[in-house]
Structures are given as structure tokens and as C-alpha cells.
Amino acid sequence: MAIKFTSVKVVPRFDQSPTGGFDVYWTVNAGGSAPTFQVSIADTESGPWTQLLQTRTSDNFLLNAGAQKINLGSGLTWFKIGAYIGSSLSAESLPADARNGMDRRIYLQYREILRRWKLTFDKTPMLPGFLFRRKFYGSKCTQCTDEILATPASSSCQVCFGTGIVGGYHTPISMRGDWSAQTAPRVVNKISKEPAGPQQVHVAKIKIFGVPDAKSEDLWVDFGTKVIHRIEEVIPEQWGGSVVTQTIVVSKLPPHHPAYKLTIPSSP
Ligand SMILES: [Zn+2]
After folding, report:
1. Is the pTM of this model over 0.90?
2. Among 114, 230, 236, 264, which lies 20 to 30 A Cα-Cα from 49?
């Protein structure tokens, strides 16, 4: 299967010095291949391009890419992602500009709204956590899947954690969550309508920053309690067509779930 980029999103950072910086996220269809990625930066759409990484990343994002000041004058900062299999370039994304194609006035408003939300999420009532984004490409798990019999990945597998892809999840991203939407903080009981019959499932709603976009079946780890939650649903909240915050509906994974074998960073 040919590797194909499906999106590149550039997000301004606000936790840096006034020189700023960007986080870059991309999505790719890569099937069973496990590419590594190189992010390049340029002042114009046509380059010249400067590669940003010494070692390519296997994740689908790069935080604090090119801590350069965004040029709000005539120029723009551009990013391009290359996907490599081994040492050969297999696919390249289209160049993406730091404003994600928005006109300057709209972009400045969007950026200001993002900045305010970032400040809000940095405040103390927000609880630190990690978003573990599920892998959708990479080496297939041979421990628990049988391609000929097409058996589903086992949720008890400690190689793929039930995702069918080795490792299961990308490097966790530190974020903060607003749990205040609960009637009872942090944990709410709800009767599930699973076919197995009624059982107690802990369901909670957490509001998080809009990027990166969370998806169903990603994981949210509450740093304080180390409890791992599976994301059941994502409700994006938009401004002008761009997601600025998202509410994730999560259910608590039971303590025996193999996801608890994932390595959780020691500080948020
Ligand atoms: Zn597996």
C-alpha cells in the first residue's frame, strides 16, 4: 500500500518565549508499513527546505517544530512532512502554511482564542493528564492477530494492547483536562447497555484543548490517579470552522486491563 498523507495541521505554541514556535500534527494512511517522518521548514511554499530532525520520528506529530517567530508580514512559515521507509523517501505531504490556509485577520483571531484557551487550561483547577493517541498504521501484531483467520486483536495483548499494531499508541501528549462538567467530580457511574447485561461503567466528560484531535479509542490517563480511560466519544467545539476545545467522553478501564502496562511519563 502506498503511503499517503491525509492532513497536516500547524498549531502555534504559547508556552515559549515571545519568539514562539509551532506544533505540527499529520495524519497518514500507511497500512501495515511503519514509516518514520522528517519535518522540514521553509519561508516560502517552494523552499528551500530545512530538515528539523536529527533522527526521524515514528510518531505522527512534532512538538515545538522550528521555534521561529511567525512572520505576519508578507511571508509565512511553511512545513512539509516526508515519510520514509528505511532510508528512502516514500511519500511527501503537500506544503502546509502556519496559518492553515486562513487569511491573516481570521488567523490572528483564531490564534488569540487558542491562546486564551491555553491559558485557561494552564490554570490550577485543570487536572494534568496524557492523551495516548491510538496508532492506525505500523507493523501488525503477530502475537494476537491471525491474518488468514482474520481474528480480531486481543484486548489482553501486551504487544499491541488490542489495537492490532505493535506498540498500540503514539508517544503520550501532556495535556490538562477540565473535569468540572461532572455532576460528581472525576467519576460518574452510568449503567451500560452492553449485551452482557447491566454493569457499572464509570463514564466521565473531560474538556481538553482542541489540538491534537482526540479520537474514539484513544486513551486518557489522569496523571493524579494514574487511572486509564478509553475515549468513547469526542465532541469538538469550534470557532470559525477550527476546533479550539474538545470534550472527551471517557470510560474507566478496569485495573487488570493491559493498557496499565503502558509507560506513563513520570511528570506531566
Ligand atoms: Zn496484539
Report:
1. no
2. 114
